[in-house]
Specification:
The chain is built from ten helices and nine strands. By secondary structure, the chain is an alpha/beta fold. Strand 5, helix 7 and strand 6 form a beta-alpha-beta unit. The structure holds adenosine monophosphate.
Length: about 280
């Protein structure tokens, strides 16, 4: 697909017409939901989408309902023109950039809540966050009707929550994860990294380093509590304010005391005002 045929939609009827024409031609459609401020992590999702399907739609929507009252909704980075240029260059076919009014017209009253998977990790620290994500992504899936939707493993709890939503609600879509893209020093790419001061940016890769250490030390059968305590202490000594650091069952996200199956070491920590999350397979 050449850059010149890239299309950007702000009107749902027009978007649906475009996708319907692709479907009528038998083309597989892949959706990549984003909040914009795109970086190479997002573009890795576009590359994966192009590998698995014929048509790629990226949505850009800073979803107000997934931000808490004291979170960064107002200052979240927004640069639509730059994002559209990046998507076109990366070979996406279309961008879907709905307004808040399109997504949440007056009288909007539905919320999708996922029990269990949202009880731990980010759940208690971000009340309402996953309901906001589950609801908006369900809407995006119904608007675009993709065959596959791609999400980064960087937001591992989000990925698992959305897989649960799709299974529970019989959504006719496959929810797939894509490995985390990192800076050369290990820091996971994130739109929020631009909030970091130079000093904070220098310290930030420590989060990944601690996760990698715990992941490689958490051999099957050995208790993980000591490693976690040491990792938390190392992060706090480096200036992080740790919200959680845990080794979890990769499917249920319930913390485990010893590893005996697929597991993930997952953390959230503040550096100054910036909240970073990251995870690694054990
Ligand atoms: P966001 O715009 O932050 O909501 O992210 C949109 C999608 O990109 C989500 O599925 C994220 O998990 C994914 N994503 C964000 N950062 C990365 C990264 N560093 N590597 C891979 N995927 C990412």
């Amino acid at each position: 697909m050449s850059e010149s045929t890239f299309q950007s939609f702000r009107d749902l009827t027009a978007l649906r017409g475009c996708v319907a024409a692709w479907r009528a031609a038998g083309e597989r459609v892949v959706l990549i939901p984003t909040m914009g401020a795109l970086h190479d992590g997002h573009l890795a999702l576009v590359a994966e989408a192009r590998r698995i399907g014929r048509r790629t739609v990226a949505s850009i929507f800073v979803n107000p309902t997934q931000f808490g009252p004291n979170e960064d909704f107002a200052r979240y980075p927004r640069d639509l023109d730059a994002d559209l240029a990046l998507l076109a260059r990366a070979g996406a076919d279309a961008a879907w950039t709905p307004s808040v009014e399109t997504m949440y017209p007056p009288g909007f009253a539905t919320r999708i809540e996922v029990a269990g998977l949202t009880d731990g990790l980010c759940g208690p620290f971000r009340p309402g966050h996953f309901a906001g994500v589950a609801t908006v992504v369900t809407k995006l899936l119904n608007q675009v009707r993709p065959d596959v939707a791609l999400f980064g493993e960087k937001d591992f709890q989000q990925l698992r929550v959305l897989q649960q939503v799709a299974a529970d609600l019989d959504l006719p879509v496959e929810i797939r994860g894509v490995p985390t893209v990192r800076e050369p020093d290990g820091l996971a790419l994130s739109s929020r990294n631009r909030y970091l001061s130079a000093e904070e940016r220098a310290v930030a890769p420590k989060l990944h380093a601690v996760l990698a250490e715990i992941a490689s030390a958490s051999r099957s059968g050995t208790p993980v509590a000591g490693r976690i305590a040491a990792g938390r202490a190392a992060l706090e000594a480096a200036g992080f304010r740790v919200q959680y650091l845990a080794v979890c069952d990769a499917r249920t996200l319930v913390p485990v005391e010893r590893v005996d199956g697929p597991a993930r070491v997952i953390a959230a920590a503040f550096l100054g005002r910036t909240r970073l999350i990251d995870n690694r397979a054990v």
